[in-house]
Amino acid sequence: MIVSALLTSVGINFGLSVLFFALYSVLRQQPCNVKVYAPRLVAEGRARLRGRFSIETLLPSAGWVRRAWQPTEEDLYNSCGLDGVVFSRIFVFSLRVFSLAAIIGIFVLLPVNYLGDHLRDIDFSDLPNKSLDLFTISNVKDGSNWLWCHFSAAYIITGVMCYLLYAEYKYIAEKRIAYFNASKPQPQHFTVLIRDIPLHAGNSISDTVQAFFTEYHPSDYLSNTVVCRTSKLQGLITDAEKVYRKLTHLKSISSSSQNQNRSGFFGMFGKHADLVRDYSKKLEDIEQNVRLVQSDSRREEVPAAFVFFKSRYGAAKALHIQQSVNPTEWVTEWAPEPRDVYWPFFSTSFMQRWISKLIVFVASVLLVILFLVVVAFVQSLTYLEELEALFPFLGKILKITVISQVVTGYLPSLILHLVSALVPPIVKLFSAMQGYVAVSQIEKSACKKMLLFTIWFLFFANVLTGSVTSQIELLFDPKTIPSRLAVAVPAQASFFIAYVVTSWTSLSWKLNRTIPLISDFFSRHCCRSKDDKFEIPSIPYYSEIPRILLFVLLGLTYFLLAPMILPFILVFFCIGYIIYRNQLLDVYQPKYDTGGRFWPVVHNSTIFSLVLMHIIAVGIFGLKKLPIAAILIVPLPVLTLLFNDYCRKRFLPVFRKFSAETLIKRDREDLSEPAMAEFFDELVTVYRDPALMPIRHLSSDGEHTSPLLS
Fold first, then answer.
1. Could you write out the DSSP letters of every residue in 18-81?
2. Start-end of H helices in 587-659
3. 399 band by pLDDT with thresholds 50, 70 and 90
4. Which helix (H) or strand (E) segment is 448 a member of?
5. Where are the domains of the chain?
6. Which of 434, 429, 427 shows the shortest CA–CA distance to 357?
7. Rounded mean pLDDT of 478-494?
8. What are the backbone angles phi and psi of residue 674, rounded to the nearest 5°?
9. Which helix (H) or strand (E) holds 307?
10. pTM metric for this prediction
């Protein structure tokens, strides 16, 4: 890619970003859009659904930026929990690291690269038509002493990165302990989920659980709640929701003639029918069936139960001690928050979960292979010669300067962004199939899958596909990894710079919430719905965290090779910090709080990126005929991995379990709390399948007053 093509991409994306920012600042001020751009504030009563229109609302304003910047970390914690704080800290950490990296890269490494004279003679007058390779380390002459600048920069950025990683890990671990100590007694702290309970003839699962824990945990056991199979109920409740929404829509239509329809073919023949009356009768029948199923005492029980204990320490003992000689029976895990429970997969057995993981693995491999084809096509767009060879009829069109610059500088990264947007929901579906019992567990598993997909598909696949096909041999000859990467990675610098720039547009596009905006518009103007109920979204950590970590990977790997990428990455983090804070405070409502458990994923990914930078540095110094520098770089990945091992032993246990000291201290504090008796009374009922709770659609309309099952 030449400089002018990059400038074309920067211009297009900068213009689109400014346009989307201006559009957002106007749309968010319209009273009719408050449910789209501030649904959380509406639900909490801090924003009005209707307001007075004024001409000032049609003028772009940057006031939302100030409001997103002002809240403190304590405000963010109170609003979004520790997970929201951790998500924000990823941006803070990245801004600190890449601010220093950008200073070193732009003012030291970039001039050294450009003045290297290895690829051409200097001609500043023709700079727009120069290749971006002139700004990479490839332009530095072999054996040049200027390469020691890159060597020194590698040590500096590694030291700073490790120091900041340690500080962040320690800070978030302390926050997690403080979060636990300051919280009120929570049901999940006293509850253990037991799965794969062995069945005994003549005994119910509840009796089996009670007998087992009364015998082996007599001083700690409190009670249990067995999980029931409710798939039939779930289907009935889903049908009731659909009918209720249709009924609500019909009632919101002002003209009574619109509530009349013919009973024949497609509503064109037969007698007129009162749709409101018919749907009301249908909803009443469904609710009656729901009550009958809920009251059936012969509901099928699943070999899983929530077991409640009298203390946090008692629950922890039961959790961390193997309960049976057979490790596939009486399998224990911490119970999730009641709002976090994912009920459909309680029915899966140990063997079913194992088979599901195998199926998901095979499906993931097939998905990666499928997307490799897409990567190969995207990479072909960055090389006009290959594109003309594949499509000869495009030869004349591609010779037009503007079109060639758009095709090579903007189109490949745009296609990759659009294709990548299809992956998160597929990955989340794969994780849901594996038998997790909490939404947070599903999303954390999806986050790890997305991270692997992001690293191996978006980074390595583009690097390897974009170079010679023989690079696949890299997988079979580990000794050549540094040298192969040292050749392949710099060759894709221009592509990834364009990808980072295109991400500005995708971020600003996300800010506008286009799909919810269109949906809300049609529901108000086309469907004429007056239903004030609306869904408040939750932030998809499983897709957003890997996306951010990809830019950390790109920034570190190209820090030495192509420092021109660093300012663009820094701009991405600045934009993302403001946009995501705005969305966390106004739009997203947390559906769970893991207490910061996403940070170890962030830490491990950053360590991987750092080690990858070291491996590439070893290869690049070897190719540049500076073997002493290559040898002296080798201690860096070793020291980094030792640092990571220390962090794992020092901080990771805090994210997996709480110490006996912490648990017993909290239990002793609760002894003096008179409200604990009431808490334990409510504890035995808090983990109840929502399908067993009464539905009151008709009673809320005043048309049906008979009580449902309580």
1. HHHHHHHHHHTTSGGGHHHH-HHHHHTTSS-S-----GGGGS---HHHHHHHSS-HHHHHHHHH
2. 599-623, 627-633, 635-650, 652-656
3. low
4. helix 439-453
5. 3-183+352-631, 187-349+664-700
6. 434
7. 74
8. -70, -20
9. strand 301-309
10. 0.84
